[in-house]
Amino acid sequence: MTRDGTAAPLIQARGLRKTYPAKVRGGEGFQAVAGIDFHVDRGEAFGFLGPNGAGKSSTMRMLGCVSPPTGGDLRILGMDPRRDGRRIRARLGVVPQDDVLDPDLSVRENLLMYGIYFGLPRRVVRERAGRLLDFAQLEDKAEEKLGSLSGGMRRRLTIARSLINEPDILLLDEPTTGLDPQARHVLWDRLFRLKQQGVTLLLTTHYMDEAEQLCDRLVVMDKGLIADEGSPQELIQRHSTREVLELRFPIEEHEQAAGKLSALVRADVGERVEVLPDRVLVYTPDGEATLAVVTAAQMVPVTALVRRSTLEDVFLRLAGRSLTD
Each residue of 169-181: pLDDT tens digit? Predict the structure, then answer.
């Protein structure tokens, strides 16, 4: 509890840094996280977005107490991970990007063995395993080996296994990577149910729709720093327009059309134009009205699409469109 009577954050980071030593003696180390501030409240779903190399994974490793911070201050559940890593890890659930299930064990046995790893009594582990099989919708697969499971089932089992110790915080690294849309939606439902039960979720994801669906708040990271923070809707309002008009023109007309659209935007039909190799994006408060102005200017696109702004527009504006290794 803070001095003003409000609940203290479950996680508090101030000036958090992570530097890896130089591979060559005498060289400079690599600073993966360059001094970031954020907090996570109990029962919140908090996301980390950013391109490859932005510092997301290094931050998650520090939060998981498997990589000590180089500098700054980090408190998790009121404890210091440098000193209390073992105690903190006992109250965490971790869902890695790659499944690390035991293929020689049945679905139920994977849960039972993980519970024993935490030192839980066998009676407690059996009772929790039964509940988690129901939660993951895997009751009918309980005695089968992993080879019979689909990718979505394996991810649900991985999440169920991470809950065997009834954690306060669940860390999820790219939880739905490689899953088909149906499996992703089933997994979203399971995670939403966990949040309703009071479990605090921390996740990284490359899927912007996933971040919009699951996250109460998120940070966009780039080059080891936080570019911005807020709810998905707050970030969209700050960095984009209500709608986006996507226009495609014949290849031979693309460059000329882009220049003409830029002139129209300067005449206040939109806020900005972004020229991509295959299409032109017009950021505007009213896509249909802007499209009417475009056609009145004798511009005939091959295709025209009006859509609402999304987190992807925010992400690409803050982090850029260049690929990062």
Answer: 999 998 888 888 8
